[in-house]
């Protein structure tokens, strides 16, 4: 049967560790605030008004009063974390800062991995049948080898070579699975062709009927669709809309892959080898207060309790905060370190921090 998530993680050896001072925002779109902003109800209201304007949040009076109470507690909690002095990561105010945990987890951001309409075995059989028709079985879909290079280097960062800009799935579409899969396909295509082309998540959302569009999906199922569909078109030919629409056939040169492989579970060395070779789709836990307010540094905090989100591992490295995976998210460049999170590789639990060693996969291209 299908497991409830698939994979990808990413790195940033060159990223500067964000200082522990409460200059909360290492990226331009973040909201700075100081202890003075927390000193009174009036100053907190002024901070909330500034936050609403910054993120263009429309709130009617009744809702605004209720959400202000959430916001001020979140602002204080973030401030306290950043001043405790021993954390390897900072938190910051962002567009999720007047939401409850329950609201976030019900939102498309909080959960976008869903089992497909067919089982893994049925999808694989369909996939094999396609290859037998297309090329007489000269390439077979394989699982579990881990791929990649032996003896992975100490640090890898595919950004600038095989990673497109940070994108935003938006608040109305649970399409993280499509963004994760597309980032991995963009990566291997750039490595094989030396041409970095942004590709269309919307084509997967509209046309991959084994996944569930804006209601979730899995990356391996998306990779199988790209094979059966004889590719995925550039983003410019089929732009992202943030909602599910009718599948369109557009005339544009597609980018193809030939299959996918899974990374062995709970094996950090296998994931390093895979990421050393190419960007990898990863399933992660991302529903906690700490994760959604992550602003910078090496994250080793509470991630949430389920593999409900998908991202892309694009590198790994180490700095004063310890060893980390570099992970590209799909919450826009205003979240985290310009849209990225560095997840700690130091952990005693076999699933890794945020479950990052649990369900990972990557596309194969000749």
From TrEMBL:
Residues 48-104 form the Cathepsin propeptide inhibitor domain. GO terms for cellular component: extracellular space; lysosome. GO terms for molecular function: cysteine-type endopeptidase activity. Residues 125-154 are annotated as: Disordered. GO terms for biological process: proteolysis involved in protein catabolic process. It comes from the Eukaryota. The keyword Hydrolase applies. SMART domains: Inhibitor_I29, Pept_C1. Residues 152-364 form the Peptidase C1A papain C-terminal domain. InterPro entries: Papain-like_cys_pep_sf, Pept_asp_AS, Peptidase_C1A, Peptidase_C1A_C, Peptidase_C1A_papain-like, Prot_inhib_I29. Residues 1-30 form the signal peptide. Coiled coil: none annotated. Keywords: Disulfide bond, Hydrolase, Protease, Signal, Thiol protease. Belongs to the peptidase C1 family. PANTHER family: CYSTEINE PROTEASE FAMILY C1-RELATED (PTHR12411). This is Cysteine proteinase.
